[in-house]
Amino acid sequence: MATLHVLSHSPFGDDRLVSCLRLLGDGDALLLSGDAVYAVQCATTHRESLESMPDGITLYALEEDVAARGLSDLPARLRQVDYPGFVELCCRYARTNTWL
Question: Where are the transmembrane segments (predicted)?
Answer without folding.
Answer: none
